[in-house]
Amino acid sequence: MEVTNTNFVDPKDVLPYRVGDVNERKEAQQTRENVDERKRKAKEDAQETRKRYVESGKKPKVEDKYYNSRDEPYQIIVSDKDGETDLCKSVSNVVKNLEQKTTTQLEQILTLLQQRKDNECIKDLKFVETLQEVAEGKSVKQSSLYQGKYYPAELAVDGNTGTFSHTKTEENPYWWVDLGKLYKVKQIVVYSRTNCCGSYLKNMDVTVGTSLDNMSLCIHYKGPASTGGHFNLDCKAAMVGRYVKLSINRKNSIMQLAELKVFAYRQKI
User: Fold this and answer.
1) Residues 6 or more apart whose Cβ sits within 8 Å of residue 268
2) Does residue 139 register a pLDDT over 50?
3) Of 70-84, 85-99, 149-163, which has the strongest mean pLDDT?
4) SS3 of 97, please?
5) How far apart, in whole angstroms, are the C-alpha atoms of residue 74 and residue 31?
6) How many whole angstroms separate alpha carbon 206 and alpha carbon 188?
7) 261 vs 61: CA distance, rounded Å
8) What percent of the chain has pLDDT over 90?
9) Could you write out the three-class secondary structure of 178-199?
């Protein structure tokens, strides 16, 4: 059992150290005795309180106030055998409970805020634009066939860079793909032949339009390309169209493509 006085002031700190008068000496002695008596009484009360609470199985409460020689209140804190006060234990438990409640409430608030944010984003979001490859397997056509029957236009959208489309040598050869519906076309990726003749791809216009009679320039490719390589052709801004056309505006030219990919935003216009 330990009794701790958190605010007690020793009388010698507040009474004259030297008392010349007998009455003053007696008064000082009486004051000390009174303080000692109060301390003794407080200790007894604390012990009694401790005993009472131990017998009842309840936690002692620090409620009773005592007074020092200056009539300043102080309290008795009762310690257990481990030296930890019941008050400290009580405060510690309160703090832990408060932390748990606060953490739980904070998590709930954050969850609600995130849900609100997500809902607002979903509400304001009309669509999510993602580039998709939209040319593979689609309907295609080119200006001619090599030797009248070889290397058709479909070989440029078969997903295999080992095959290729090929026109005959002619003026202004072209190749186009019908995407099947309107898209916002952003990028065209062209793969040249893997075994030769990559340099044939040069001075080429890439156009996009809603019909073959209504085409606009996406980009001009000066080239030349390299054998077995590929290059990206980006429109400055996404262009609405269903058709993508490649044209070489020169005499004695050949259009040959190992593969062509069209990347567009898949959405209804």
Assistant:
1) 182
2) yes
3) 149-163
4) helix
5) 17
6) 9
7) 81
8) 49
9) EEEEEEEEEEEEEECCCCCCHH
